[in-house]
Specification:
- This protein has 161 residues and is mainly beta.
- The strands form two sheets. Strands 1, 2, 5, 6, 7 and 10 form a six-stranded mixed β-sheet that branches. The protein has a four-stranded antiparallel β-sheet with strand order 3-4-9-8, with helices on one face.
- A hairpin with a 2-residue loop joins strand 3 and strand 4.
């Protein structure tokens, strides 16, 4: 299947899902290769796929965990300029998910390799203490602030940088 992402020379649209796994007051984050900031595991929704199916697929692909969706935390329409200067419109769904085999979850930091439609990606996973989340370069800021303040109420946010 093809990811839902539209690009021109100056603009791009992305439709993404992000999974939040909470264990022992920590969240599982990912630091991509050559990147100093942390973010949540997840990825693009594919054509013909709904966001709930996408987050379950993405968690299995990236983490090798079958998950259950516990709660939809946010839908975010984010407008920003990306690293390459492209005007970006991103539609993201944020889900709190729980691994089905919760007792076997890896509680140490670790790395995995994913073959994402022929592109080999290295994922570096790190657990961050939610009470110290504000101290980290964690993206996006609005989710960092929601988690840090323990605001688990659903929100539909529109963010324009």
């Amino acid at each position: 299947m093809k990811d839902i992402e539209i690009k021109t020379d100056t603009e791009k649209f992305k439709y993404r899902v992000n999974g939040i796994i909470i264990c022992n007051n920590k969240i599982l984050t990912i630091r991509m290769k050559n990147n100093t900031s942390f973010c949540l595991p997840g990825g693009h929704v594919e054509f013909g796929e709904d966001s709930k199916s996408a987050i379950i697929r993405e968690m299995l692909e990236e983490l090798n965990y079958d998950v259950l969706i516990e709660k939809e935390l946010a839908i975010v329409e984010n407008f920003y300029s990306d690293k390459k200067g492209l005007t970006t419109h991103e539609l993201s769904f944020y889900y709190i998910v729980k691994p089905l085999n919760y007792n076997n979850i890896r509680l140490e930091n670790y790395s995995t390799i994913e073959n994402d439609k022929g592109e080999i990606k290295e994922h570096n996973f790190e657990w961050l203490d939610i009470s110290k989340l504000i101290q980290y370069d964690f993206k996006p800021d609005f989710i960092k602030n929601k988690l840090y303040s323990n605001n688990l109420n659903f929100e539909h946010l529109i963010i324009k940088d």
